[in-house]
Amino acid sequence: MTERVHFIPVGFDFDRLIYPISKGNIDADRVVLVTHKGDPEDEGTNKAAELAAKMADKLVESFELIDIEVELKPLDTKEMFDYETLYPKAYDFIFDELKEGNEVFVNISSMPRTVAFAFATAADSIIAEDREELEDVEEIRDMLHTYYVSPDEYLVHRMREVLENAADTLDDLKRYEDLTVHEQYEEIRSVLDRIESNGITEGAQNLDGQMYVEFPSSPGSDVDDFEETILNFLSGKDPIQSTSVLAKKLAAKEGEEYDESFRSRVQYNVSKLDEKGYVAREKVGNRLETQLSTMGRLWVQTH
Fold it and tell me: What is the per-residue DSSP string for 131-168?
């Protein structure tokens, strides 16, 4: 029997993760909550993780109250920002459900964005591909859905308003020379000044030596058998100096005769893989160095 399964990465939201199902027009038989792994009381776990854990607990309880089965997929904190770990997990989660004949929905409304985007890109990739394992599944585009829910209100705006009112009140009370009032006023005023200066976030987190995570584009189309051979051969290797060198090494590995015909075949297929976004080629002198792109590495991991 076909199930309607929702994958829901859980951040700091509740309403927009449950309302489309409990009050909207999207049905669900089972929800899979992608959550932070670990006890919020553990040393090193911050208030943000504590809030996310509370939202996850509340979602579990609320979904169960409306007779929807709940499954948890916990992620380590490091995994949440490692796209090349997240994407294969998301791909496999979704793919396995589709193989079972289930209809899959992906809610990308909540944080962290890396998790939501990994699920969105994985869903898009599966739709773009033509996997033999899914031949018996109905039209994939009708069985796999990605959706976003906009909040009715951002509470941070109300928080700012409340803080401003509190700051005004404390400013009036400063004349009583209560040191506690002075300290609270300065603390609130400092937070408001930071919001005024930087918005609702501050700084940029360093993630493995850089301050961003790049999301690769979804693949352009399917991969044929020889293209798959090339991708698997390139996996785990440093850039190969030229197409000729690549063809020679590939011929040796595959037990093929290296001749002009084989070299041309490799060159043609590598060019196709470049167009599809699976390999990256860089001109060095009069040669083209070839290596797997990020999407190429992810493709190898998921196939």
Answer: -GGGTTSS-HHHHEEEE----S--HHHHHHHHHHHHHH
What tens digit of pLDDT does each residue of 136-162 get?
Answer: 666 887 889 999 998 888 888 888 888
Tell me if 52 sits within 8 A of 12, measured CB to CB. yes
Determine the pLDDT at residue 19.
92
Q: How many CA atoms lie within 13 A of 84 on its CB side?
A: 12
pLDDT band of 201, cuts 50, 70, 90: low
CA distance between the termini of the chain: 26
> Which residue from 166, 202, 196 is spatially nearest to 181, judged by alpha carbons?
166
Phi first, then psi, for residue 21 (nearest 5°) are: -95, -45
Of 123, 130, 121, 144, nearest in space to 294 by CA: 121
Asked whether 51 and 13 are in contact (CB, 8 A), the reply is no
CA distances 251 to 129, 240, 266, Å, are: 28, 14, 10
What the block records as the tokens of 150 is: 């906009």
Residue 200 has pLDDT above 90, yes or no: no
With beta carbons less than 8 A apart as the criterion, state whether 117 and 16 touch.
Answer: no
Query: DSSP 3-state assignment of 253?
Result: helix
